[in-house]
Amino acid sequence: MKKPITIIALIVIVLLGLMFFGKRNAATGPSTAQTTVASTLTASEQLYDFGTISMVNGKVSHMFKIANPTATDILVEDLTTSCMCTAAYFTDGTVKKGPFGMPGMGYVPKANMLIKAGEAKDIEVVYDPNAHGPAGVGTIDRLVYLTSASAGTLQLEIKAVVTP
Predict the structure, then answer these.
(1) Taking 70 as the threshold, does the pLDDT of residue 17 lie above it?
(2) % of the chain surpassing 90 pLDDT
(3) Is the pLDDT of residue 8 over 50?
(4) pLDDT of the residue at 13
(5) pTM of the predicted model as reported, rounded to 2 decimal places
(6) In what order do the strands lie in the sheet with 47-54?
């Protein structure tokens, strides 16, 4: 009779220990939240609304023009997105670098894209309405972050209403 009680007590202790250490590691582990310190980079628009889009029609994309109005070159180290359904690419019309996506969802390379003083680059943002399956209908709001140690973080945003 004492054997089952001892086993149950050990299991409870192990589970409580896992919960305690798991919670502690989650609190002290790396954060995936983006910091949005004002950027010296500028965008001709920071929000684009696709309106109503259909899953049947597949991916949609939009080009954001990013400019460096300063007198110094800016190195964009990271280009990341807020969701796996969204990808971003640097493009200058001839070369397309990417895809860049959500941190923690597979390999996301460093952008390391230099935007020279007075220069502009295009960021193509691609949204896949099928990425979340049938549960992905409704209003979406996704963010793209361009992060530079010297220039802060520029945040771009896309919105849409997804229908089947």
Answers:
(1) no
(2) 63
(3) yes
(4) 73
(5) 0.75
(6) 47-54, 152-163, 138-148, 78-81
pLDDT band at 101 (very low <50, low <70, confident <90, very high): very high
Residues 21 and 82 in one domain: no
Same domain, 76 and 120: yes
Same domain (yes/no): 94, 135: yes
CA distances from residue 31 to 14, 25, 26, 129 in whole angstroms, order as listed: 27, 11, 9, 26
Q: Please indicate, yes or no, if residue 144 is contained in any of the structural domains.
A: yes
Residue 124 is part of which domain span? 42-163
Query: Does residue 36 lie in a domain region?
Result: no
Q: Assess whether 87 and 22 both reside in one domain.
A: no
